[in-house]
Specification:
The protein has about 300 residues and is α/β, with parallel strands linked by helices. It is built from nine helices and eight strands. The chain folds into two domains: about 140 residues, Rossmann fold (3-Layer(aba) Sandwich); about 140 residues, Rossmann fold (3-Layer(aba) Sandwich). The strands form two sheets. The protein has a four-stranded parallel beta sheet, sandwiched between helices. β7, α8 and β8 form a beta-alpha-beta unit. The longest helix has 18 residues. It is globular.
């Protein structure tokens, strides 16, 4: 991509992330940032919604120091699906109007301790353009296929073992995440010759246990590849989903479920009825294909 031909000395990018109490996400997003800068040449900083640093307002300050006469910031949410964070939280943290009414707080008067109440205001006189989330792009299928291949290369079973694929994602009370997962899976199913399905970690169905039990029951599987459709490793991919899959004992799963999401992170603990091999590859992370997607999204706005 010849992004450099379009570069403007007064434009910069914020890669917006959620933030995590675990170090994995920050490590991955640092790699994403470094690869993105190399691919585009654009001044770029990560802005975390909460927990991690720099904050979104802090990222703006860093870019103001880095870019002389900065007058335009492109904010790119590195989120797979739209939702409350991309449509309500991130716009407000950028000093923009939310894209829809907040079902958590319809009057807009957040409690004093809420992260939207305590966040620093963005101090910037130029233009801030907020892009959409990544969405169910065809290129994500290439990453999923890569993760499946990596997992199968570690299998202890023969090549001809009957294998199924399960795509798993977070889930949401709103329809956005389910729409994203459904559309992405529908694309995946057309390209995959193996029995497959998808499931949600929480908040909507089908749950991971429900999908696994149905997939195994209908196909007499010997091996299952469970692909986490998440950007970065975090509590969900390293604790919650492994616990649901039976990889962790109950005491290993003891951690606070209060991550500031205003929901209780209750999971479907229906037993997974599968005695075969479960392979669980890494999430997307700083894959070169993801970097290409992000670079193209910004390039379209330059």
């Amino acid at each position: 991509m010849d992004t450099n031909s379009k570069l403007s000395n007064n434009t910069a990018v914020i890669l917006v992330s959620h933030g995590s109490t675990l170090p994995y996400a920050e490590e991955v997003f640092t790699q994403i940032k470094e690869k993105f800068i190399k691919a585009t040449g654009l001044a770029t900083e990560i802005g975390y919604m909460k927990v991690s640093e720099p904050t979104i307002a802090g990222a703006v300050e860093i870019l103001k120091d880095e870019v002389d006469d900065l007058d335009r910031i492109i904010a790119l949410p590195v989120f797979l699906a739209p939702g409350i964070h991309t449509n309500i939280d991130i716009p407000q943290l950028l000093g923009l109007e939310p894209l829809e009414e907040d079902p958590r707080c319809p009057d807009g008067n957040y409690p004093p301790e809420h992260y939207l109440s305590i966040a620093d205001d963005v101090d910037f006189d130029g233009e801030i353009e907020l892009l959409e989330s990544i969405g169910p792009r065809d290129e994500l299928l290439d990453i999923i296929d890569k993760r499946i291949g990596e997992a199968l290369s570690e299998s202890k079973l023969d090549e001809d073992a009957k294998t199924g694929i399960l795509l798993v994602t977070h889930g949401s009370r709103l329809n956005y995440n389910k729409e994203f997962a459904t559309e992405l899976y529908n694309k995946f199913e057309k390209t995959c010759d193996l029995p497959s399905s998808f499931g949600f970690m929480e908040l909507c169905g089908p749950s991971i246990p429900e999908s696994i039990n149905k997939l195994v029951d209908e196909n007499d599987l010997e091996r299952l590849v469970v692909v986490p459709v998440f950007i970065a490793p975090g509590m969900h991919t390293t604790h919650d989903i492994p616990h649901i899959l039976g990889f962790l004992e109950a005491h290993e799963h003891e951690h606070s479920h209060d991550h500031g999401h205003d929901h209780d992170h209750s999971h479907d603990l229906t037993p997974v009825e599968f005695d075969g091999e479960i392979l669980y590859p890494q999430p997307i992370k700083a894959d070169d294909i993801l970097i290409d997607i992000l670079a193209k999204m910004v390039d379209e706005k330059l």
